[in-house]
Amino acid sequence: MLLPRLLGYFQDAPKPIIKSEHIERFESKKSLTEEKESKKKSYAKKYVAPACRFNPNEYLLNDWLALGVSRKQGQSIVNFIERGIHSNEELEKIYVMPAEVFSLIKDSTFYPLIMENEKYEVDTLIQVELLDINLASKEDLIQLKGIGEFYAKQIIKYREELGGYIFIEQLLEVWKMRLETYQMVIPQITINRLNIKKININTCTIEVLKKHPYLDYYQSNSLIKMRAQREKFSKLIEVLDSKLINEEEFDRIFPYLSL
After folding, report:
1. How many CA atoms lie less than 13 Å away from 99 in the CB half-sphere?
2. CA distances from 58 to 77, 86, 117, 125 (A)
3. 219 φ, ψ to 5°?
4. Which of 67, 108, 109, 170 is the most exposed place for a label (fewest CB within 10 A)?
5. Residue 78 falls within a domain, yes or no?
6. pTM for the complete prediction?
């Protein structure tokens, strides 16, 4: 009776059975991991510095695309610059301009000289006290040329939903805002970004997230589930791990998030 047991002990252990569904699950998980890593790397390294110095006023859509911005971002930049800009300060204020792109191009830009009559107009405009739309009351806004009670209420309503304006161009997202009204208002206003209300993605609820104009229920739910799986977010860029949030959407919501 002892011999069979000893023989059984020294025999090779039975080989595990690997089923096709196991292989498919492994390959799927591996592919998903590689996709997420590639997504992070592309976000961090996709932008390209300009080959030479350039005047942003002369850049066409394809020129901006060559720097790595998306087609939608590039078209928005072209539309904004169409009226003419004269400094990097104005360029940086473009809402859809990624911070990484601005950092790459800021030392390569140059701008046309302002003629004497234009300089006089600019100097005169600077002397006018600009209204901070992040601090303005309804009564303050109504005093602006082109803004009545309706727009004043909508500007404040959207400001509260956002947590504050980061860029002047966000006024175009205000309900029923017309381009003519927007163009009339922008020379009269400014933005103070010091008191922007941010959402702590490590402590907030799904109700808080989904109320923000730049996140829907499904994106918010995705972030809450990701947080539960990893206990907490270590870096804001981890938000890009969500399959429901692309790079352009991340650029928009990023200034409103914190850890």
Report:
1. 8
2. 12, 12, 22, 25
3. -65, -40
4. 108
5. yes
6. 0.56
Same domain? For 171 and 213 the reply is no
Do the Cβ atoms of 224 and 210 come closer than 8 Å?
A: no
Range of the domain at 162: 129-190
Give the closest residue to 245 by CA, choosing from 215, 217, 224. Answer: 215
CATH number of the domain encompassing residue 157: 1.10.150.280
- Alpha carbon dihedral 171, 132, 209, 204, in 10-degree steps, equals 170
Q: Which of these three, 143, 159, 190, is where a domain ends?
A: 190
Whether residue 42 is contained in a domain is answered as no
Per-residue pLDDT of the chain (259 residues; tens, 9 = 90+): 555 554 454 455 455 555 555 556 556 555 555 655 555 555 445 788 887 888 898 888 888 888 888 888 888 888 888 878 888 888 888 878 888 888 888 888 887 765 445 444 444 444 558 899 999 999 999 999 989 999 999 999 999 999 999 988 899 999 989 888 888 898 899 888 888 999 999 999 999 999 999 999 999 999 999 999 999 999 999 999 999 999 889 999 999 999 9
Long-range Cβ contacts of 83-87 (<8 Å, 24+ apart): 83/183, 84/57, 85/56, 85/57, 85/111, 86/111, 86/112, 86/114, 86/122, 87/111
Angle formed at CA 133 by CA 130 and CA 139, multiple of 5 degrees: 90
118 found inside a domain:
no
- Asked which of 141, 167, 190 is the last residue of a domain, the reply is 190
Contact 226, 242 (CB under 8 A): yes
CB-CB neighbours of 212 under 10 Å: 20
